[in-house]
């Protein structure tokens, strides 16, 4: 509870990282609520900046060139601290937002920068780094996909492009997550930084690949095909062919291959999670929940009658999400029990990963 004696600036900051963040953060707020309190502030602020940039990039009420211009102004403010550029973003973009929470977020960006400047130099550098990388992915999206509808559908060229995209929009978050926790949680002092950074990247890529597969028909209809063009052509397909749901028969080998890649990323994410010391309960839960919920989603994707059908909605039911949260909380102190449940969820997706690289449970750190 906020004390009435606290300064107005503190109360505003708590509202920015509390009420407003909750309204713009979708499902991420559940994860943020459970992370340790000493990393919640920098992680929440980084998320708010990324969400503001995403709002700028997705504002279809202005042209693509203008979106790129204002996104670059935002990147410059993050890079150099030139908050004067935020005025133009407020004046041109904020009032055009139809979602009230997104409009408020843009109008309060200067408060976010005040919080940023109140943090230590190391935290500031990590936040700037991850936001600049995330926004580089947004620039890539705007530059790669010129249209807003299926009439100007464009695909990424190669699987390497897809890998780079998933790094920009999610893999870099795994790096940031690793670095910010290692900076604040002494119990992680024994971690091999490079190994855990690499696993963190794979963790993030796996979650983003889940989004790519789940959102495929929706993205196609806004002009974006994240399935590599070269691999589509090898199957005798063009991106526009995927607008016909019956094309799922021909594209299924590629979808299965990408599902296997996603599971491979998850395997690295699971190895990452079980290296978190058992006493770091909050950090463990913050990693377990998206992994387990993601596996539930992958199982739905695998059983979906047609991943290309825009009329098919793939979403893990809320009851299943709450069940996962309750069950994992009950097992949080046991690597064996958690691994048994992970393997059970993994078996519900009968696709072989590309390779398995997790160590046996007995080799995990305590």
Automatic annotation (TrEMBL):
Species lineage: Bacteria, Candidatus Methylomirabilota, Candidatus Methylomirabilia, Candidatus Methylomirabilales, Candidatus Methylomirabilaceae
User: Can you tell which superkingdom this protein's organism belongs to?
Assistant: Bacteria
One molecular function GO term is: squalene synthase [NAD(P)H] activity
InterPro entries according to UniProt: Isoprenoid_synthase_dom_sf, Squ/phyt_synthse, Trans_IPPS_euk-type
Look up the record and give one Gene Ontology term from the biological process aspect. Answer: farnesyl diphosphate metabolic process
- Identify one Pfam family in the record: SQS_PSY
Q: What is this protein called?
A: Farnesyl-diphosphate farnesyltransferase
Which key words are in the record?
A: Transferase
UniProt-listed PANTHER family: FARNESYL-DIPHOSPHATE FARNESYLTRANSFERASE, SQUALENE SYNTHASE
- Identify the species of origin: Candidatus Methylomirabilis limnetica
